[in-house]
Amino acid sequence: MEVKTYTFTPHGDDRGQLIALEEYKDFPFSVKRVYYIYDTLAGVVRGHHAHKCLKQILICVHGSCKIHLDDGHDTAEVLLDTPNKGLFIANDMWREMYDFSPDAVLMVLASELYDESDYIRDYDEFKKFVASKESEK
């Protein structure tokens, strides 16, 4: 499985740091939705889903968390612990976010507006979705 991360260039001086993100320049899609997760209690696992179309960039802008990725065949674990690192998650990837530090703020840049019908929330359905995509090739 290929895990795609981006390292964003900080611009700073003695006043602090700034990271500017531009669609199609710093990541490969147009942003239609931004949301963030915070105050996640110890032991909580978020996600447990995949998407049919939506692509995302996850950035832990404060604190840290781990991301479990599953493409239907292989798995990977990614630590997000710096605000200049982004994790690209394709539409056909199962994801779970966990091990949030108490101060974690996980920001998500999404390629589409919220659409419940785009979610695959059952792992067996996800496996069928992956298999159907592979049979189309």
Chart the SSEs and their pairings.
Layout: E1 4-7, E2 11-13, E3 16-18, E4 33-38, E5 46-51, E6 56-62, E7 65-70, E8 75-80, E9 85-89, E10 94-98, E11 105-110, E12 119-120, H1 123-136
Antiparallel strand pairs: 1-9, 2-3, 4-11, 5-10, 5-12, 6-9, 6-11, 7-8, 7-10
Please, could you describe this protein's structure?
By secondary structure, the chain is mainly beta. It has one domain (4-8, 19-136): Jelly Rolls (Sandwich). Helix content is 10%, strand content 43%. The protein has 1 helix and 12 strands; from the N terminus they run E-E-E-E-E-E-E-E-E-E-E-E-H. The chain has one helix at 123-136; strands spanning 4-7, 11-13, 16-18, 33-38, 46-51, 56-62, 65-70, 75-80, 85-89, 94-98, 105-110, 119-120. The strands form 3 sheets. It has a 5-stranded antiparallel β-sheet with strand order 1-9-6-11-4, with no helix packed on it. It is globular.
The gist of it:
The protein has 137 residues and is mainly β.
Protein traits:
137 residues, mainly beta, five-stranded antiparallel β-sheet, 1 helix
Mean pLDDT: 95
Q: How many discrete structural domains?
A: 1
Shape: globular
Q: Helix-strand pattern, N to C? A: EEEEEEEEEEEEH
Which ranges are low-confidence, i.e. pLDDT below 50, for 5 or more consecutive residues?
none
Using only C-alpha atoms, the radius of gyration works out to 15 Å
What class, by secondary structure content?
mainly beta
Largest sheet: 5 strands, antiparallel
User: Percent range for helical residues?
Assistant: 10-25%
Measure the end-to-end span.
18 Å
How many DSSP helices? 1
Record the strand order, biggest sheet.
1-9-6-11-4
Strand content: 35-45%
CATH class: Mainly Beta
